Amino acid sequence: MSDVIPPANTARRAASVSPRQSGVDTNKTPEQVINEAPLASAAGKPETTVATVERKAWRINTTMSEDELMVLTEKSSFNIPMELILRLDFLVNHSKARGLGRKTNKTALVIEALDEYTKKELKKAGHSV
Q1: What is the mean pLDDT of residues 76-85?
Q2: pLDDT, tens only, 86-118
Q3: In the chain, what is the straight-line distance between the N-terminal and C-terminal CA atoms, in Å?
Q4: What are the Cα distances from residue 82, in Å, to 88, 107, 117?
Q5: Among the four 13, 37, 79, 102, which has the fewest Cβ within 10 Å?
Q6: Which residues, 6+ apart, have CB-to-CB distance to 22 below 8 Å?
Q7: 88 versus 49: which is more confidently predicted?
C-alpha cells in the first residue's frame, strides 16, 4: 500500500453546481449600478418619514436625544472654592439614602445644581427646556 492519500473528488462536486445566472449586466461599474438603482421604496412597503423635531440651540451640532446626552459624560476638573467643597461634604454626610439604599454623592449634588441653574438661565434667555 502506498502512503499517498488520494485527493478529494472535487471535480464531481464542482460539476453538479452550476454557476449563478442573473439578468444583471456584469460589465457595469459599481457607480453605474448605484446610479441606476431606484430611489423609491418597494411597492408593497410604505415609506417611513422621519418627523422633524425642534432642536434646542445647544444641541444643534449633535443628532443624539436628550436621554442619550444625559448618559454621556465628560471628565472635567474645576477649581471649586474650598468653602463650597466643605458645604458639599457636609450635605453628603448628612443626607438620607435615596431609593434602593443609594446615598447622595458630590457628583449627584453638583449635577443637580448645574441642571437647575442652566434651566433657569435658559428660560431667562427665552429658550424652552
Answers
A1: 88
A2: 888 898 888 776 667 677 888 888 999 999 999
A3: 87
A4: 10, 16, 20
A5: 79
A6: none
A7: 88
